[in-house]
Batch of 2 targets.
Target 1
Amino acid sequence: MRNIDVCLSSEGTEVILATSSDEKHPPENIIDGNPETFWTTTGMFPQEFIICFHKHVRIERLLIQSYFVRTLRIEKSTSKEPVDFEQWIERDLVHTEGQLQNEEIMGTSYACSCYHNVHLFNYFLKLNFKEWNYWVHGYRHI
């Protein structure tokens, strides 16, 4: 198996739920593979999005880029439908005073999943937008 970014629309991945959307910066930008595009939220919290991989994937590395997020929680599901999520990762992110937060999570405990439910909690500042990108490196099980 080859190590790829399995969180790309070109790999068949979809954002099937997002709690907010902006016409210029929709949730689908999270998975388009372009570092210049992003998802903008409404500024209210908590926010969440669900990513569907359509097949089981083995996660080796996550890279999350964000602004003004205090707590990040990622849940995973191996079900054929986006149900029965179990908590996988929860992290308090470092406040970077308006600078990009780069959070890299290595697969010390690998996750095989079909869905990720990503929750964003307790923004440091109430701003009108938050920018998001999410990369998942691993293997697609066929």
Target 2
Amino acid sequence: MIGYRQNMLSTTLLENKKDLKKRLNNILQHKKISRFRLLLSVCTIGITLLFTACSTVWIASDNTSSSSTKDTAFEENSLFSNIFGSKTTDTSFVYNFSSANKTSDAWNVYDDDLLLADEDIQDNWYAHYYRGGGNKIKASSFVLYGSDTFLIAHTEKDVDVKVTSSFELSEGKFKIISIAPDKSIFTINETGAETTQTISMKKGRNVLKIVGQGAKLKNLTIDYSNLKASSFEKIFYSEEEEYITQVKDGTISLEADSKAKILDALHYLNDKDASDIFHSLLNAKTDFTTEELYDFFIYSDSTLSSQYLMEALQNGNLAPLSADTISELCPYLKSEDLAELLKNLSPDEFMDTFIAALPYLNSKQNSDIFHSLLNAKANFTTEELYNFFIYSDSTLSSQYLMEALQNGNLAPLSADTILKLCPYLKSEDLTELLKALPPDEFMDTFIEVLPYLNNSQSKECLENFLE
């Protein structure tokens, strides 16, 4: 799991916060499909970490008007920028960054103690060479419009923590603060000069935050490495981590806005805990978009989540899934659940969705569904038949195909279709199909399929043609 707070090298891509989360999803999305795809994901993470050592992270609100600088070494639409995001090689963005809305809460939070003591508010969070972890934070350049929590410490007794900090402010206002359990606020550093302050953390919830009002700065350092986790009841490195832990532990109940908060914090959970919270939301009859369901499956135990999803559908706690949703989720659903969902699709939605799901069903399931479709007199293109055969039990599918042809449930196959399917058909069935071809199509097709016939079958086909 890559976290942009705790790890030594944080995720440092030039991104909107929501896009950053999507990019992490893209890295993780195929982790459960196959060993090969898992290896690719690991390689992707490794390459990402290699490039992020000196790159940029940008966290901005959806309504911000700011724009990022571009590195002239990489075109914006290049493969590099599409995969890793744009990268800056200097700190010019600090001086070129556009202004924020000076009437917003993210701007006003700096001088408002009530807003400071409440949840974080941000318009922009933008850093170059940002490092977090080991109770230290460093950034060579930094832009912050709003507030950002970097430590939440719950304690049953008074504990002293030393915080050493420094920064070079180029524009705006910036400060590091502590918030006591009684909501009183103490400013740790507002000048930027290197200083060490001893913070007396009182019984209850203590918070350390950075706050910026149009803040553009360089060489930010915050060091609180003398903090010992054993001295505290609980330690969190973001509001999201604290919230999701409280949901997991049942210390706070699910509310109307719980889903959005949970989705933002899923990466803090282990697979089983994510599935359990998904289960709770389903039992509460929560509605989900396709993307939201996808996120839960990415971060959860997909077997458990598949089970909970099917239970919710059966109990009426969740509306039937669309074809698009099934297509997105098929790599993570249990194959028997996927097969069940496919059966409930309308005829006009079925085929495209089924073709997308074929690699995730076992061969027997694919053959059984093929059999059902043949009995229903479904029409197939050559490519659709080919997909059935390559992902199914070809012996069974060959048997079902011949039965459908004999019963009139399927139109005679063209020469092109026979050529496409010949590696998967039983040789005796292939013989019968060749014998049914028109004379003008027989010879070219026969020559192509000879490797799949034995001598006796080849002779039988030729004799039938000559007659």
